[in-house]
């Protein structure tokens, strides 16, 4: 007899940001592997592998070996890409091989008077009792703040 597992739980969140760059430039920061790693990697000192194949059904892979030895793996798959307008991807997070969550994320880019209004929407399914909504929201917000700093660098938004 196997022990019963806690049910999955679902949540979502939406983050809006204004960036002083054109939608194509903000979109490009999501598509270039070197640029994306600069602003999206919250553990650069512990990253053991990063790869981005930005195309329909392409993958983004990120592995982090934390200081305590735990291995975190994130695998993304791109389902919809409309240049300068929208990216839809799904991703899962595993810690030491244990599935923690599966997410569907949509990133939309809108022209605004001062550059771009970007809307990030994520729907999360937490698995087997794991739940970290506040941490996930904070981490995503921090990444999007780093995106703003990246776009403010000379030449980044050209």
TrEMBL record:
InterPro entries: ASHA1/2-like_C (IPR013538), START-like_dom_sf (IPR023393). It comes from the Bacteria. CDD domains: SRPBCC_CalC_Aha1-like_7. Residues 21-146 form the Activator of Hsp90 ATPase homologue 1/2-like C-terminal domain. Belongs to the AHA1 family. This is Uncharacterized protein YndB with AHSA1/START domain. It comes from Acidovorax soli.
